[in-house]
Design brief:
This protein is mainly β and 116 residues long. The protein is built from no helices and 11 strands.
Length: 116
């Protein structure tokens, strides 16, 4: 079992920055690929960024490329999403996700609101 707890959401003006953190506990370590998803009101949940188990490979959605950066610290069991140049369309609940071949887990989410 893995527990994921997100933090760092909040209200920010357009053009600003936020750093989201996800703390993993339980059977963690480097056994899971990790990702950040978001869901805006009335929209489907989408993958924003993902990172491989050892951190060598990352993925970013086209909508956030060049603005968001995902990283992980396996020693601390944390995953971070650095978000720069935020836009009002980035407003959503952001969820941390852990995945391996057998299981996947979700955090409860943290709200990011970007005002224009």
């Amino acid at each position: 079992q893995v527990q994921l707890v997100e933090s760092g959401g909040g209200l920010v003006q357009a053009g600003g920055s936020l750093t989201l953190s996800c703390a993993a506990s339980g059977r963690t370590g480097s056994n899971y690929a990790m990702g950040w998803f978001r869901q805006a009101p009335g929209k489907e949940r989408e993958c924003v960024a993902a990172i491989s188990r050892n951190g060598d490979n990352t993925y970013s959605a086209e909508s956030v490329k060049g603005r968001f950066t995902i990283s992980r610290d396996n020693a601390k069991n944390t995953v971070t999403l650095q978000m720069n140049s935020l836009k009002p369309e980035d407003t959503a609940i952001y969820y941390c996700h852990a995945l391996n071949s057998a299981m996947n887990y979700w955090g409860k989410g943290t709200l990011v609101t970007v005002s224009s």
